[in-house]
Write a structure and sequence with these properties.
The protein has one helix spanning 73-94, and strands at residues 34-44, 47-58, 61-71. By secondary structure, it is α+β, with helices and mostly antiparallel strands. It is elongated.
């Protein structure tokens, strides 16, 4: 098909504008934001090791934080005990115990 049924018109290039362009600041809308956090508690060599990382993107700003530390062995035991008590308390509210 060497010939097309419709002929294209010749186009004239547009003249560039020379006036000032207004700069418009973007509106501060929260169309996208996120938060991420990670915490790890472990027992290594008789010491409680805590690692925590957080990242968030809010209002066009990305921030990131990290923390690592060590505590005494008893701290780990207390945390595990409290977590178990909390879990059993929540479970007791939802599951009726039968004698």
């Amino acid at each position: 098909m060497a010939t097309y049924p419709v002929k294209a018109r010749k186009r004239v290039p547009e003249m560039l504008r020379t006036d000032e362009v207004a700069v418009v600041e973007p509106a501060r809308t929260r169309f996208f934001s996120f938060r991420y956090s990670f915490t790890e508690v472990s027992l290594v060599g008789g010491r409680t090791r805590v690692k925590s990382r957080q990242a968030r993107f809010e209002d066009g700003k990305l921030t990131s934080e990290a923390f690592e530390g060590e505590l005494d062995h008893t701290t780990y035991d207390q945390m595990v005990s409290q977590a178990q008590q909390h879990f059993l308390g929540v479970l007791a509210r939802f599951l009726p115990f039968r004698d």
